[in-house]
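Is NAP placement plausible here? Inputs below.
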Amino acid sequence: MILITGAKGQLGYDFQRLFDELKEEYIATDVDDLDITNIEKVREFVKDKNITLIINCAAYNNVDKAEDEEELCKKLNTYAPRDLAIVAKEIGADYITYSTDFVFDGEKKALYTEEDIPNPLSVYGKSKYEGEKEVFKVKPESFVVRTSWVFGIANNNFNKQVINWSKSKDELSIVDDQISSPTYSKDLAYYSWELIKTKKYGLYHLSNDGEASKYDQGKYVLGKIGWQGKLNRAKTKDFNLKAKRAEYTKLDSSKLEKVIGKKIPSWENGIDRFLEEME
Ligand SMILES: NC(=O)c1ccc[n+]([C@@H]2O[C@H](COP(=O)([O-])OP(=O)(O)OC[C@H]3O[C@@H](n4cnc5c(N)ncnc54)[C@H](OP(=O)(O)O)[C@@H]3O)[C@@H](O)[C@H]2O)c1
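Reply from A.M.:
I modeled the complex. Tokens:
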């Protein structure tokens, strides 16, 4: 039996759909029925359920708010992933949890591999990096997958924001100095599953292929939906954001692609399928 935490989020929702298709048995939980910050509750929950895999899709994802909510952010992104790893170890289950391209400072200006040394610029990035280390400390045979700019059907994301803005505005400004890759949560779930099946535990990067700035992503979405307005290039400094952003954090997914023997599709292809789904 597979246990999914944070199942109402983008990735959790797509794991559920994948397992429905594959006829894999799972239990989907979110904060209302399983708060992952309470290890005793988690221990109790998994008892007698024959859980063989825990997929942690829950997280604190509000990058700017995290600057003021450091403790809450750490609870969800550092300690809870570690505690789930402890429980997985206790019950002999496999374990996968997720991290982010925000662990990097962007100074490399080339694809980031798993070998590169993180240097997070924000509370959120730091909480995720600490979480990675804690997980491997307590259960080295875990999967930790870093991804970037996730979009899917189940929750809010940048694609949906852009579509909403386009409904009420005929001029938009989007930053072109943050570069990474949008990642479709459906692909994140599918390629993670391919990875889990290999049992080749470790740290992996998984994002859709190709790189884009937020401007490129917005432009692509707006073009696809036929928006007729004016799109301007902006800079991160124009927006007075609480958390510092790196300029370039595109993840190199080739380690994972090699292990699973499959190529991950481009972000444009991901957005095409996402927009079809939204119709
Ligand atoms: N979204 C991105 O752009 C992005 C980028 C890089 C990495 N990631 C990582 O990828 C993974 C999946 O992200 P996602 O976008 O699918 O996340 P998401 O849509 O924000 O979903 C997270 C889910 O976890 C739930 N949750 C919050 N606190 C919880 C708790 N204490 N116990 C159990 N569940 C709780 C959330 O509920 P509420 O909505 O009620 O809080 C939400 O349903 C996460 O590890 C995330 O950090 C995401």
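Short version: The domain at 2-155+183-209+250-266 is CATH 3.40.50.720 (Rossmann fold).
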